[in-house]
Amino acid sequence: SDTNVYLAVDLGASSGRVIGAQVVAGKLELTEVHRFANEPVHIQDSYQWDVHGLWREILTGLRMAGQQFTGIASVGVDTWGVDYVLLNRQDQFAGPVRHYRDERKNGIMERVFQTCPRDEIFAATGLQFMEINSLFQLCSAVECGDPALEIAESFLMMGDFFHWLLTGVKSLEATNASTTQMLDPRDQTWSVGLMQRCNIPQKLFCEVTVPGTKLGMIQPSVVAETGLADVPVYVPATHDTGSAVVAVPAGEFAPQRPDWCYISSGTWSLMGCELAEPKINEMCAEMNFTNEGGVYGSTRLLQNIGGLWLFQQLRRSMQRRAVERDWAEMVSMAESAQPFGILLDPDDSAFAAPTDMLDAMKEFAERTGQAAVDDEAVWYRASLEGLAIRYRVCLADLEKLVGGRIDTIHVVGGGANNEMLCQMTADACNRTVIAGPVEATAIGNVIMQMIGVGEIESVDAGRRLVQESFDVKTYRPQSPANWDTPSAKWCELTGR
Ligand code: ADP
Ligand code: LRH
């Protein structure tokens, strides 16, 4: 074909894909070239990403794309946030690539606050406090005298790591760098003072690169593996959430007073607004919202919510009990269960990395004075209802923070496939939900590449293209009043 084809490598915490995108008759057409599971592994006492396996799958996907398309204009990688690779002076792994659910950093935050107070970290970074943030992962490495830190020469986040494997060029892309909790969101420079106080070697960090930059060409060893000759890498928003928000089919980019919010719904639910400026104030700190960096210096004011992780892990729990379920089956079983049988808090720390999610949920029910039940359908339903109520609470806080009503909730990501959850979200929040596109992250990744190459001129133009190209589904609130009592109970139970 004559049109430019853009390849998005999109790695989520649960799965990865290589997607080809091209404009055909004024519409962006997506072709899913390759999809694969992202399966981390327990090794001794650590929990690690299978970076070798992921790289193998990326190469496979790129090779398949090369066979399918001519005229590949560019490639870009986006991934989940916070995790990183440390390389030694010979550019080899200085240590294992830990998963953010690895246990080593558990409880680290309180210890860090003794030398580096919470307020100061917030003032410097504007980020929601989560022990998964790279800052705290690195602090736990410092605390235990991890030899990886002694020999490390460079720090790369996951997207940067794969970009380096593709091109041989090291970079740290701004949107994912903003999830480290070591970056100043006002000018996107590293918070050197914070690193010094935490004994994190500053020399590991190069200057940040903005999305849309041409990083380099696919290097010869990768050309040999994939057949992709003369293909450049244009850096997208390498943070998956950053890419997803680029592709939300909404109004004006980074509005002063947003009347819409998004939920990027996958393993996590990232719920928030796109703003022109970060909001680093007391209310934001108290509500534990985050100011992540978006494209063109925009801000994603949002909360990281425990997401479909619970639902995913319930599926795994059933597998452990030799019962295979698919998503559609789980959703239809949830539909058959009584509403509000159990109230769950998706952000309870008991659900962060349990050996068995179903057991963890039963323990949670007992701990909070609810009757644990044996019917699996009840737990499927509860994990979706708990999420919808959590969205309602988040929306109320978000409206206070932005100082006005939010009319519309855009749901993008795999969770947009879950019609029951979309309807529950509309009901619990009493707002219109617009669901789709499901592959917003890959689309947003492609849009920044297209801007880099010069095929489209702005995020607004990219969003118009998304609106013209993809169908969305609208959900209106049907029985919002049903959610008042359970939501009040939920708040009592969780103390939120
Ligand atoms: P991540 O990027 O975090 O890996 P995704 O955005 O790919 O996550 O979303 C994956 C989730 O989407 C699954 O865990 C599942 O809950 C949900 N999902 C995907 N397809 C369907 C479907 N057909 N019906 C219901 N839920 C679905
Ligand atoms: C979602 C996500 C989220 C967080 C988490 C670690 O996939 O990127 O924004 O950073 O993963």
From TrEMBL:
The enzyme's E.C. designation:
2.7.1.5
Example GO CC term: the record gives: cytosol
**Which residues are in the Carbohydrate kinase FGGY C-terminal domain?**
261-451
Q: Which domain of life is it from?
A: Bacteria
The Carbohydrate kinase FGGY N-terminal domain extends over: 5-246
- A single GO molecular function term of this UniProt record: glycerol kinase activity
Per the record, the GO terms for biological process are: glycerol metabolic process; rhamnose catabolic process
Which InterPro entries does UniProt cross-reference here?
A: ATPase_NBD, FGGY_C, FGGY_N, Rhamnulokinase
Please tell me which top-level EC class this enzyme sits in: transferase
Keywords from UniProt, A to Z, are: ATP-binding, Disulfide bond, Kinase, Nucleotide-binding, Rhamnose metabolism, Transferase
Q: Which family does it belong to?
A: Belongs to the FGGY kinase family.
Which PANTHER family does the entry link to? L-RHAMNULOKINASE (PTHR10196:SF93), SUGAR KINASE (PTHR10196)
Its recorded name reads Rhamnulokinase
